[in-house]
Design goal:
The protein is an alpha+beta fold. The protein is built from three helices and eight strands; from the N terminus they run αααββββββββ. Strand 4 and strand 5 form a beta hairpin. It is elongated and about 95 Å long.
Length: 173
């Protein structure tokens, strides 16, 4: 065999090995990406739903090309009153409608400082409800604009999507 033929075989072998390595890496990377949750649309993530913009948000979501997994019909009071910062509310209520597709839990954060979590709920199964809610953080008297962040969870309680809803907390004394 000539030197040119040997060189061609060696170069051909190196090219084939490089192509195989590339294909293997791409296949493995594809499996990793498929196992990770996709980041929600940043613009929708920043939207807080309240009575004033609910119809607009629903319309925007209906016009979106991709609809996130899960469905949630929020049943809740959106103004919670507390006699003081350490007692349970008599009108705070959240239910997970039996017709929903997923169990859910929620966190309540202050709208002005979303790192300040004032309540963490347990998981609410479909058809379940919570009332008589007592905040995890004692708040002084005042009115607080808050955001309730619902986490729709799968059977292993992994978050599959979130819904943000505006909420007013009023502490009387």
């Amino acid at each position: 065999m000539s030197k040119k033929a040997k060189a061609a075989i060696v170069i051909g072998s190196v090219v084939i090995i490089a192509l195989l390595a590339t294909v293997i890496v791409l296949l493995l990377r594809g499996k990793e990406d498929a196992g990770q949750a996709q980041e929600p649309d940043k613009e929708m993530r920043a939207t807080v739903v309240n009575e004033d913009n609910a119809e607009q948000v629903v319309e925007e979501m209906a016009n979106r090309e991709y609809i996130e997994p899960g469905f949630y019909n929020a049943k809740m009071t959106n103004e919670w009153h507390f006699k003081n910062g350490s007692e349970a509310s008599e009108d705070a209520y959240v239910a997970n409608d039996a017709g929903n597709t997923n169990d859910v839990y929620f966190d309540i954060v202050l709208a002005e400082d979303e790192s300040k979590v004032i309540y963490k709920s347990p998981v609410i199964p479909r058809g379940g409800e919570i009332d008589g809610i007592k905040l995890d953080e004692v708040l002084s008297a005042g009115t607080y604009e808050c955001v309730m962040i619902y986490h729709l969870v799968d059977a292993d309680q992994n978050t599959i999507s979130t819904v943000r809803v505006g909420l007013t907390v009023i502490v009387e004394s």
